[in-house]
Every structure is written in C-alpha cells, then in structure tokens.
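User: Some background: our group keeps a shared notebook of sequences we're curious about, and every so often someone picks one and asks for a predicted structure to add to the entry. Today it's my turn. The entry only has the sequence so far, pasted here. Could you supply the structure so I can complete it?
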Amino acid sequence: MKAEINEQALLKGLAQNDSKAVEALYKSHFAMIQHFVLNNNGSFDDARDLFQEAMITLYEKVQSDSFVLSCQIKTYLFSICKNLWLKRLQQMSKYNAPLSTEEESIAVEADLEAFQKKDAAFSIMNRALNSLGEPCKSLLEGYYLNKKGMQALADDFGYTNADNAKNQKYKCLMRLKKLFFSQYNIGD
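Assistant: Of course. Here's the predicted structure to add to the notebook entry:
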C-alpha cells in the first residue's frame, strides 16, 4: 500500500514539474532501462536518450486529468522504452521481427519479471566470481570473457601444458558453480 501511495506522489510531483520527483524516477528506474538497452545492441547514450523520451511521454500523460496508471511506474517506463527501442532497432535493421502496434499483445509484466530475474542471476554470478579468488577468477575470465585458448592460458599462468590449464579451468568452473548455486538458492 505504501509503495502505491509513493508512486502516486511521484506521479503528482512529475505533473507539477517537481525536480525531486523527476530525480527519484531517474534514480529508481534508469539502471533497469540502461541494462536493457546495453544488452540489446545499444549504448549508454542510447539508454539515456530512450529513458528521456519515456520520461517525456510519462510527463505528457500525467498532465492529463483523465490519465490513470494501471500498473507500476517501472512497468510503464519499461514498456515505453522497450517499444521505442525495438522500433529503433528495426529502423537500424538490427531487429527483423515484425513489431505489433497493439500494446495488449506485448506482455510487458512478464518481460520485466524475466529481465529482473536474469539481472538478479547476473548479479549473483558476479558476486560468486568476485569471491572465487585468484587464479581461478583470472583463468575463467581469460577463457570465457577474453576468449583465450588453453595454450595461451597455460603460458599466462605457468602451467606445464594446455591439458593442465584445461583441468584447472574445470576445477575453477566447478567451484564457481558451487558458489553461484549456494547463493542463488538462498535468493529463491
């Protein structure tokens, strides 16, 4: 109930051009949009522009006395940004799926929930990777993120051959999985 009252206060503040309300909306929701855009062929500047457009749309809507928000603000902003971004990607020929003009056909709540769940899993993975320690962290980053081959990793870490590096990578990966799932299961 308190969250609902807070959202109504934010909308009222936005309608009255209150800078604190605008700032609160940015602080609460920009990171989600930034993450979405960066994971879908965009840049930080794209995310900033997109979020600004969504905020302008929301501002224009709350100016109308007839506007009633039937979902959370984050869901509304995410929906606007998702639709705008997909249109922009289609214009840039990076997204070829046909876009629906019917807002009802897009299950934004489900998309947002899936996005938040995936984002939480990435955060847990990042914590697990950071708590893994050296040389495992660097070895896994070298292989999976920097796309280094086994022989290059063996040379970098002083292993006698590529097979030893591969065995060590496997052991590190098992430790990472154990750390990840111990934290992931706690979060459920």
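Suggested note for the entry: The helical segments are 2-15, 19-38, 44-62, 73-91, 108-132, 136-145, 150-157, 162-187. The longest helix spans residues 162-187.
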